[in-house]
Amino acid sequence: MMKANQKRIEGDINELAAFNATPGKGLTRLSYTEEYREAQRYLRMEMEKLGMSVRLDAIGNLIGRLEGTNSGRARHNEKNMTGRKDEPVQGDPKLPALAVGSHLDSVLNGGIFDGNLGIVCGLELARMLQENSIQLSHPFEVMAIVEEEGNTFGSGIMGGKAIAGKLDESLLDLLTDAGGHSARQAMIDFELNPTSIDTVKRSPADLAVFIEPHIEQGPVLESENLSVGVVDAIVGIRTREIEIVGRPDHGGTTPMHLRKDAVTAMSEVINEARRAVDDLDDGTVLTCGCVHVEPGTVNVVPGKAVFSVECRSRNQESLDFVFEQVHGVLDGLRERGFSILEKTLMELAPTHLSERVTAALKRGMSTCGLTEKVLTSGAGHDSMCIAGVTDVGMIFVASRDGRSHCPEEYSSTEDIADACNVVLEALIELDQVL
Ligand SMILES: [Zn+2]
């Protein structure tokens, strides 16, 4: 079996880690900055060493490409003859690409594996293809995607949205950085051409598969002593802000049955939501992380509580179920004289990744002698958007202590090499069947 080279992986991770605005305080590499440009320069150099053609698209995604061996035409003929696939003989002579990659930007003071890991896997795979003289019929691309974290303009997954054709150009003027500069200006300063952002869009005709290796950012794989796991879904997120208004009263003189205590009302809502999530027992999670209470004094019955309810699940029905229970409690509170306001902060449907790619990754795991572990991603990724235009798969690499978005973030090169080995097996399979 072909093996990824851990030394090379470690080398790339460390090289990329040096392009950093906050050395000693975690990795800060925001999109369209000087350190971002230097990281791209390093990747371009490594890609060119491998004979890849390299291009920067209109939003700033860096794409290295190895051409496939097959013109496409002969392959289609052959498939028709064997009767395996009834595809037209005519058409675009080029087969669509198989791509591997992730994002090159970081959060403020983050870790050196988030994003970088997937790009490093892509580079290592290109090297593995070459040193093992594996000739894919399809072109192979390594993608370093821009502006995923959203730490510059407050809106993430911009590179992935552009690839999916879902980025509205007018947004580039509305989004500004801390200094008031628009996203459009940042792109122009980076010598990009934001007016042609629609040229970034890919389709199944030129991109057959995108696989994103990514650090897990959670504790599951490590707790099960596994190096990698295949992701088959990315959670949907529903976040609401709920305001409950009761009545502030003297905390000593008001008997319990005459109080309209907004905090005990809030706790009824949170307890019911928690009970619903426990009943579901399908991996759905609940966080009520933002709470504001008025007047916020020890001896006054709280008259007002504003709090967030965030639910994440791979199942849309589970999100609906939790909020049905929440609304049941809120209706009861209204009947008891509380006034309630509810505001949607986020609504994102779950993404189910390509069954074909997920199956190929699972077979890759068993070929590599690894346990076939399947996980749900609890965080958003570029893959979520790209899944709207083509077949997308993800593979997670174990995180030490489940830490991420902090300097302590760590995945071992041994585990990253496992991910490369699995993805290589999947690519070879997908190259043959697509
Ligand atoms: Zn990431």
List the helices and strands and how they pair.
Elements: H1 6-17, H2 34-49, E1 53-56, E2 62-66, H3 73-82, E3 97-103, H4 116-131, E4 140-145, H5 158-163, H6 171-174, H7 183-189, E5 207-215, H8 220-223, E6 228-234, E7 236-245, E8 249-250, H9 262-280, E9 285-287, E10 291-294, E11 300-301, E12 304-313, H10 316-335, E13 339-348, E14 351-352, H11 355-367, E15 374-377, H12 382-386, E16 391-397, H13 413-433
Parallel strand pairs: 3-4, 3-5, 5-16, 6-15
Antiparallel strand pairs: 1-2, 2-4, 6-14, 6-16, 7-12, 7-13, 8-11, 9-12, 10-12
Helix pairs in contact: 1-4, 1-13, 4-13, 9-10, 11-13
Your description of this structure?
- The structure is a single chain.
- With 434 residues, the protein is α+β, with helices and mostly antiparallel strands.
- It folds into two domains: 6-234 and 350-433, Zn peptidases (Aminopeptidase), CATH 3.40.630.10; 236-348, Alpha-Beta Plaits (2-Layer Sandwich).
- 35% of the residues lie in helices and 21% in strands.
- The chain contains 13 helices and 16 strands.
- The protein has helices at 6-17, 34-49, 73-82, 116-131, 158-163, 171-174, 183-189, 220-223, 262-280, 316-335, 355-367, 382-386, 413-433; strands at 53-56, 62-66, 97-103, 140-145, 207-215, 228-234, 236-245, 249-250, 285-287, 291-294, 300-301, 304-313, 339-348, 351-352, 374-377, 391-397.
- The strands form three sheets. Strands 1, 2, 3, 4, 5, 6, 14, 15 and 16 form a nine-stranded mixed β-sheet that branches. Strands 7, 9, 10, 12 and 13 form a five-stranded antiparallel β-sheet that branches. A two-stranded antiparallel ribbon has the order 8-11.
- Strand 3 (97-103), helix 4 and strand 4 (140-145) form a beta-alpha-beta unit.
- The longest helix has 21 residues, at 413-433.
- Residues 71-92 have low confidence and may be disordered.
- The structure holds zinc ion.
- Residues 103, 114-115, 148, 214 line the site of zinc ion.
